[in-house]
Amino acid sequence: MSDLPLEAQASPAPPAPPKAGRDLKAAIGVGLALAALVVGTVLIDKRAFMVVLVVAIAVGAWELRQALAQRGLVAPLVPLLVGAIAMPVSAFVDGPEALVLTYGWVITGMTLWRMADGLDGAVRDVSAGALIALYPCLLGGFASMLLAAPDGERRLLVFILVTVFSDIGGYAVGVLIGRTPMAPTISPKKSWEGFAGSVLVCAVVGAISLPALLDGPWWAGALLGAMAASTATVGDLIESSIKRDLGIKDMSQLLPGHGGLMDRLDSLIVTVAPVWAVLLWIVPPASAS
Fold it and tell me: Quick one: pLDDT band at residue 36, thresholds 50, 70, 90?
């Protein structure tokens, strides 16, 4: 007879956690709600989407600032939030030159703001602010430039499709047949099989969406999708590296099943700049229908 107490013998074993490591129902529900918000505002009015974009960048910047502050890296908050608003807006109004110029002014403002509180640790804090101003603020500004084109709504939809389906393809294939870790010390659940699934799914989505939405060649869409899968994966790994270094699981608990908003933006903000550049080359706005 077992030496365990009767209560322990009768208690069923706790259910194993899902292989994906998150609440799937909550993740799907929140993901669908976010997708509806983004796609809906894109289709309704460019200004509505700009509001969503600015809020998302500001929240993402705040989350990253809070995470870095746990390690004593306290970015100046006010100039950072001003920059989170100013960078996407300036990029939408006046393009890449305005985006870079605004970034420079934000760094200058953070430096002066932090120096007014004293010099002890100022370089450390301004460096943290410069990182956040770049990621997600400046990179997020490329979404504004996608939208600013005459056919910007369709360009943005192509970007969203090829990036979001990277997560979907990688998640599905990784759960089903993922065996070979891609970066076990950074993101143990990410596998090479899942990455291959991301590339394949995104290539198919790109080959369909680019001709359908922008009248571009299907093969260019397939290459765009494969590139987006690669940069989206890099974005995931960058965020995972930051979180692992900081000793946190999620940037926040804002989104059930996902963590923080930055946990959803990581792949998007790294992918948007190369997608903007490639679309500018493949389908110049002047020739878009």
Answer: confident
User: What region does 248 belong to: left with phi over 0, alpha with psi -120 to 50, or beta?
Assistant: beta
- Looking only at the bridges linking them, the beta strands covering 181-183 and 187-191 are antiparallel
What helix, strand, coil percent values describe the chain, rounded to 5? 75, 5, 20
Half-sphere exposure of 215 (CA within 13 A, CB side): 7
Mean pLDDT throughout 55-62?
96
What angle do the packed helices 77-115 and 139-148 form, to 10 degrees? Answer: 130
The per-residue b/e assignment along 218-255, b for 16 or more CB within 10 angstroms, e otherwise, is eebbbbbbbbbbbbbbebbbbbbebbeebebebbbebb
Phi, psi torsion values for 235, nearest 5 degrees: -60, -45
Q: Among positive and negative, which fits the CA dihedral 93, 94, 97, 102?
A: negative
Q: Which residue has the tokens 């792949």?
A: 267
Residue 212: other Cβ atoms inside 10 A: 15
Residue 174 is predicted with a pLDDT of 83
Strand partners, 187: 183
Q: Is the pLDDT of residue 65 over 60?
A: yes
Distance CA 254, CA 28 (A): 15
Token reading at 98: 């305005």
* Kind plus residue range of the DSSP H or E element containing 182: strand 181-183
Q: At what angle do helices 46-69 and 139-148 cross, to 10 degrees?
A: 180
Residue 18: its pLDDT value, please? 46
Instruction: Give the residue from 200, 180, 199, 197 showing the smallest Cα distance to 188.
Output: 180
Position of tokens 């490329």?
Answer: 142
pLDDT at 49: 94
Q: Which two tokens stand for residue 217?
A: 């060649």
Rounded-to-integer distance, Cα 186 and Cα 197, Å = 20
